[in-house]
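Lecture notes, continued. The same structure-token format from the folding unit now serves as the input rather than the output. Read the line below as a description of shape only.
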């Protein structure tokens, strides 16, 4: 496996330190063999290879002088090499960290309509992995530098309760924020700050304790999630409806599955607005199946009948392959006339739309 500059630098530093230790050990043993005291032998070796000086009394003999010559030739070069490698590793590490932070800040500054994930704990990791799997742009904000070291995504070091940190994360350009810190109080502050800095922001907050949900809603959260409560509900569902639960898990979380659940907004001016679900022939034209419709006021129309009229600002909950969902999105965004849609009236009966 190829190694990066940081790993190569550490390997060179390790080799240099081992070589220097061997030189010091060999020199100390040599001076000790020449009659020096063990501690004095180490001292004389260090002073010799660092060019501080030599023990003139010790090198009076020819053998001691010859040994000192070889020690100086080997030791001085090794010491200088080790010093140079250590300085190089330190300087490169500092520069890499500095330039890495600047690159990250520039990358975050270029983001728009992204998601801010506050907190790199167990919940934050799952959220980030899911967003990455969906191809979403996002940035992780974490206050603990040790946790931030293993974040493989765009990230910022800072306290998410600080408005300046949220501004650095581009909250004025973000479309959504996840408050997933380990503290309910911190999530409350993050939610309050996010709502005040960007009134249009969609905020999902994590709740741990009982009675916190209502406070988070009052602070400005659009959705409040209690992982413990959801986990318990999912476990109970696995007991009483195992096949339904496994199917929902697969279609919502398995990236390798052919079919996926997706939400498709109906924009104003769409070719389908004003048509009934039956006359739109979504199933026949795209292959995607409409499971439910969320109305603009927030209510759900589950298993909508064919006579349901499609209007702007509705959200279609559909299931289909990636290709079918892409075709549905293109159809909804298209400017085709109602006549074009009704021209396909003989394709399928209404009850199959």
């Amino acid at each position: 496996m190829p190694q990066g500059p940081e790993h190569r630098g550490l390997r060179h530093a390790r080799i240099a330190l081992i070589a220097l230790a061997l030189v010091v050990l060999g020199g100390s043993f040599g001076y000790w063999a020449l009659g020096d005291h063990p501690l004095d032998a180490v001292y004389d070796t260090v002073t010799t290879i660092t060019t501080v000086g030599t023990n003139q009394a010790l090198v009076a003999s020819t053998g001691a002088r010859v040994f000192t010559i070889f020690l100086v030739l080997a030791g001085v070069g090794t010491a200088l090499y080790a010093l140079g490698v250590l300085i190089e590793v330190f300087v490169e590490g500092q520069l890499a960290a500095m330039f890495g932070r600047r690159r990250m800040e520039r990358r975050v500054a270029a983001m728009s309509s992204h998601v801010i994930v506050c907190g790199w704990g167990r919940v934050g990791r799952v959220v980030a992995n899911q967003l990455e799997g969906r191809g979403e742009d996002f940035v992780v904000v974490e206050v603990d530098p040790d946790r931030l070291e293993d974040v493989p995504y765009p990230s910022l070091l800072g306290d998410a309760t600080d408005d300046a940190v949220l501004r650095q994360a581009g909250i004025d350009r973000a479309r959504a924020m996840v408050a997933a810190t380990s503290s309910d109080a911190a999530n409350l502050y993050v939610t309050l700050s996010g709502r005040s800095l960007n009134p249009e922001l969609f905020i999902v907050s994590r709740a741990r304790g009982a009675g916190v949900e209502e406070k988070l809603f009052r602070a400005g959260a659009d959705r409040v999630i209690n992982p413990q409560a959801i986990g318990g509900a999912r476990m109970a569902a696995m007991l009483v409806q195992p096949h339904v639960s496994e199917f929902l898990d697969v279609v919502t979380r398995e990236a390798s599955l052919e079919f996926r659940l997706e939400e498709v907004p109906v924009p104003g001016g769409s070719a389908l607005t004003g048509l009934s679900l039956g006359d739109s022939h979504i199933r026949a034209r795209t292959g995607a199946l409409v499971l439910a419709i969320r109305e603009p006021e927030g209510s759900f129309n589950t298993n909508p009948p064919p006579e349901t009229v499609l209007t702007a600002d509705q959200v279609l909950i559909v299931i289909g392959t990636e290709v079918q969902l892409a075709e549905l999105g293109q159809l909804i965004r298209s400017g085709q006339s109602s006549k074009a849609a009704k021209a396909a009236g003989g394709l399928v009966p209404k009850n199959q739309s």
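Point for the exam: The first helix runs from residue 5 to 33.
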